[in-house]
Amino acid sequence: MAQKNEHIPYAEEALLAQWAREFRLPLIRFFQKRVPATIEPEDLVQEVFVRLARRADLATIERVDGYLFQTAANVLADRYRKDARKPDVIESYDESVHGEVVLTPERVLMDKQELNDLIQGLYALPERTRHIFVLYHFENIRQTEIARRFEMPISTVEKHMARANKLLLRRLGRKR
């Protein structure tokens, strides 16, 4: 079975060529404003047109400029997502720095005590503040979603988080 768009029909190819002539420079400027110098805008423009070439019905696009720039925004978002998954610096393993942590009985006891202090600190928080803190830190719920669930402004969620962090850090002996 042949892959979709293995061969682009002439009419589609002509549209792509026309749009490339018309929108190449505006797309380059669009990317130049939004990416660091280490990313080549021309490569991103090329990706926009590759995505368009995969589409079978180019003639049905009503607002070409809007569609192209929305595709460009998607290309940019995909690039940032991809880059976010890559570490900036890969540090080589060094036994003296990354060596195995020795768990002495004293260390285990100190860690258990710190965990106990944290749990007690959580129970000392006002109920709503504790609930918001747990949703955010332990259930990985975004603050905007928490605000929606509690029907409160995001600034109120942020205040609850700040209060919880301050009280817990104080309880763990890390003054702030």
Write structural notes for this entry.
- By secondary structure, the protein is mainly α.
- The chain has two domains: 10-85; 104-171, Winged helix-like DNA-binding domain superfamily/Winged helix DNA-binding domain (Arc Repressor Mutant, subunit A, Orthogonal Bundle), CATH 1.10.10.10.
- The protein contains eight helices and no strands.
- Helix 7 crosses helix 8 (154-171).
- It is elongated and about 75 Å long.
- Mean pLDDT is 84; it is low at 1-5.
Unreliable runs: 1-5
Helix content: 55-70%
* Spatial gap, N to C terminus: 64 Å
Q: What is the number of strand segments? A: 0
Described by the principal axes of the CA atoms, the overall outline is elongated
Strand content: under 5%
Structural class: mainly alpha
User: What's the rounded overall pLDDT mean?
Assistant: 84
Query: What Rg, in angstroms, do the CA atoms define?
Result: 26 Å
Number of domains: 2
Q: Largest sheet at a glance?
A: none
Q: What's the helix count?
A: 8
The SSE order reads: HHHHHHHH
Give the SSE layout:
Blueprint: H1 10-32, H2 41-54, H3 64-85, H4 95-98, H5 105-124, H6 127-137, H7 143-150, H8 154-171
Helix pairs in contact: 1-2, 1-3, 2-3, 5-8, 6-8, 7-8
Task: Give a quick rundown of the structure.
By secondary structure, the protein is mainly alpha-helical. The chain has helices at 10-32, 41-54, 64-85, 95-98, 105-124, 127-137, 143-150, 154-171. 68% of the residues lie in helices and 0% in strands.
